[in-house]
Amino acid sequence: MDKELGNILIIDDDEDVLFAAKMLLKKHAKNVIIEKNPKKIPFLMNNDTYDVILLDMNFSKDITSGKEGFYWLEQILERDPKAVVILITAFGDVEMAVRALKEGATDFVLKPWQNEKLLATLNTAVKLKKSYKEVDQLKSAKKQLEEEINQPFKEIIGESKAIKDVFKVIEKVAQTDANVLILGENGTGKELISRAIHMQSLRRDNVFVGVDMGAITETLFESELFGHKRGAFTDAKEDRTGRFEVANKGTLFLDEIGNLSMPLQSKLLTVIQNRQVTKIGANKAANIDIRLICATNMPIYDMVEDNAFRQDLLYRINTVEIRLPALRERLEDIPLLAEHFVKTYSSKYRKSGKKIGAAALKKLQKYHWPGNIRELQHAIERAVIMSDETSLTPDDFFFLNYKPEGQSADQTDIFNLDEVEKNVIKKAIDRHEGNISKAAKELGLTRASLYRRLEKHGL
């Protein structure tokens, strides 16, 4: 059994029984504790945990009735309702042992016992104890999962108005099956938002499947998304289920959808319209039931005007549109994000107690963050790794590419037209808290024209 019996506690007033049991079990258990006096049971249970407790039914004060055994069984189970207790009883006490089983004992062994039978009984009891632990772990995991489900936006950190507006949209759209299009720069957390929508939806108990459309080649597009039958083409050595079918009853997230070519857009549109997929090499279409969420960092409305993206596909995928603010549009969230990442990487790299100082936070809030939250995350990870001090300082972020003094957006003596245009657009976006329609109206531009300029200036 190779010490499979774990920790065993034996309580019996007969020293010969205790000695014999310990000699037998010490080869098979990690630890064998023996005790003559049952009054020490509370002390023993407070100071250690046991996989199995062997309890005599009768002690010196009450030789045959078993009352003491019942009393101490009750005391044990009161302290640990999942304690595995095996009663030690004489042949004549079998009826009493059966009664004890009804009152919570796990099993009983008869005096004098057969060694093999005792070991078998203990082995079964230990497996039962392990099953109790596994059930507790599953319950704990289930409770944690439910708490995460019931705690909206747990992983989305921020208290700014810009991010709270996103939360409001998620709350409204999540309980529906409406298709969602998430717009935002690289590093703003589009996949995180998509998962938040899924976790708040009626499909949360089913699968979430994410696909990076930018990473799928033209030749593998249909096989990856729709699947194929064995022998459909040279390398098709077995049947493959496509992502659409895998996501059936759940949520399908298509990231970087703006990277698709026009022919692939047409194929995708057909599947979305018909809610059916046909594997390569198959004759029969399969029905699909999915919640579709798409995302892109590209100016998709400009692409429609330039005939680079199908307008009918855009209408299909953006029943509800969510625009994620860039980090520079929610600078007040940087302290919360920074503290979260410092805690995460301090734990990962075993640098407990590390914090970020006020001066460092101030420096981070002055940076323009072209890479958004992802850049902030990587910057803090690097700082945590390289810093030897308890508190991160501005010097720990020396590698950030700050604009030279005198080149700020508020400077009025700039005559480069591109810079002037960039600064004016940024001010309009900031003034309207990221609302593209309002900013475009104030600037005298269409939404599409403003998106083109945002792309041009990397805003």
TrEMBL record:
Domain (Sigma-54 factor interaction) ranges: 156-385
Residues the record lists as 4-aspartylphosphate modifications: 56
Record has Transport as a keyword: no
Record field: transmembrane: none
Alphabetical list of Gene3D superfamilies matching this protein: 1.10.8.60, 3.40.50.2300, Homeodomain-like, P-loop containing nucleotide triphosphate hydrolases
Top-rank taxon, per record: Bacteria
Pfam families: AAA_lid_14 (PF25601), HTH_8 (PF02954), Response_reg (PF00072), Sigma54_activat (PF00158)
SMART domains in UniProt: AAA, REC
Domain Response regulatory: 7-126
Entry coiled-coil feature ranges: none
Claim: DNA-binding is one of the keywords in the record: yes
UniProt keyword terms in alphabetical order: ATP-binding, DNA-binding, Nucleotide-binding, Phosphoprotein, Transcription, Transcription regulation
Entries under InterPro entries matching the protein: AAA+_ATPase, AAA_lid_NorR, CheY-like_superfamily, Homeodomain-like_sf, HTH_Fis, P-loop_NTPase, Sig_transdc_resp-reg_receiver, Sigma_54_int
Classification via PANTHER family: ALGINATE BIOSYNTHESIS TRANSCRIPTIONAL REGULATORY PROTEIN ALGB (PTHR32071:SF113), TRANSCRIPTIONAL REGULATORY PROTEIN (PTHR32071)
UniProt name for this protein: Sigma-54 dependent transcriptional regulator
